[in-house]
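Reviewers asked in the last cycle whether our approach scales beyond single polypeptides. To address this, we selected a multi-component target totalling 500 residues and predicted its structure end to end. The input consisted of the following lines:
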Amino acid sequence: MSAAANVLVNASAPSNETGYRTFTLGNFKISRDEYFVHVTWPAKGQQMKHIMSADAFLRAMMRDVAWGFFYGWVNFDGMIGTRNKYGQVEFYAGRYAPAYHDRGLDLVETFDTPLIMATFKAILEDFTNKGFDPFAAPDETGSSWVGKKNGSNTEAIDRQRQACKRMPGLPGDAELRSDSNGYPVNRAFADVVQDAPEIHAEEGFENDVHAMNLFAYLSRSDVTWNPSVTSVCGRSLCCPTTEEYILPIKHGNDRVEWFVQLSDEIEWEVEDKLTGLPRAKAIMKAGDVAAMPANIRHQGFSKKRSMLLVWENATPELPDMYESGKLQPYPVNF
Amino acid sequence: MSEFQTVFGSLNDYTKGELKIINDDPKHYVFSNIFDVASKSKPYEKVVVAINLEYVIEAVRAEGVSDWFAVAHDEFAIIMDGEVRIDLVKLDNPNAVAAPDKQGAVKVNGEPVGKKMGHIVCKRGHQALLPAGAAYRFTATKTGVMMMQTVIGDLSVQKWADICYK
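The resulting structure, written as structure tokens, was:
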């Protein structure tokens, strides 16, 4: 057992063979070897088993941790994932895979958020080898995830999500990104203009007249598929992010979420939230706006690093309003 | 020279994406394109392209000089195309223009009364704060498109059937 933030994480001693620990979370056991992560759980008197490539698992778990379990469901793939109950989190295997769920071969267990967060952070730290950055695009981070336990990459996995209170650059708010504070322009956005808006503030209004180059800010993002918050209007949050390769999870919505494609192109696969059956494909290009309804799960594919503005409504009552049927799962009737 | 080319849209050069339905209603995705919407809008018409309860994203065609507007809450403008000057005035009596609980932008009758705060010149990709209690006016030095983050108000226009895939 190891203690993290006053929460006991259940971990074995390092394996003599691979160097990785095995973690226990309720009735789930999570282990890894040179290539794969294995998740096991009991069901109907037998031990069920799910296998994932370790890089895909780490990329998914990294988002779940960085997003604080996000809004609703974070499916690592079609079998395992988490559902945020805001204060508690469900971890499941097979719950949204009908062949398992219909035969009682799934398992859902609920944990207090601090316990599952501490366990996930400990898994990330143990399973991530030196040189592998789960936030980076494959072209940037290579294959150092492969093999036996070889060091760690604490700096990469401990990054904090950048969230402003009002707008970055205002006094006392989140910093703008620059070379000098460790945010060089990403290789895929080397052609993005870095000019600044002209700000002419009268005396006494220097802290109120404010603007920033949002596209330049995004061009300096050092992570993929990890929204920051760049403007706050009540509970309306603009959460732009830069996307390359594949969204490492399938996000199941507990509220309507909106996408505004700021640059380039992302292809979205949309499935039914409960069954995973295909419902639509959206190919979004610069300037496109689309809703992701509250009853779907979605996964994006971005060939070139692109800029996506995710628009969220952080109203805490929203999940219950959709769950109870008070709100329809899509945003407008026309 | 970068091996990558970043593609942004503009009023004169945009391609609306695709929605391929397998088993759903295309209307559920409320799929539109900001440049497409602005290409058919009147100057400074506030067309809602995304809505979540009372919160909205509006597509606005920036062309010529706008009226003066005021808001009781912060708004944000992202310039998606063109070049826009934003003049700001701190209202002497903001509650008389937009009551504290008034949602969305309101038009100011005549010139706003208050102290000049300054002005901002924004180009593509720039984001400006339109602070609560201030009046603002846009002047497009080059016709373009803005995306506004705000709350639905009297000036917001919803015409989903005209702008979305059906």
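The longest strand of chain B covers residues 134-151. We regard this as preliminary and will revisit it once experimental data from Aim 1 are available.
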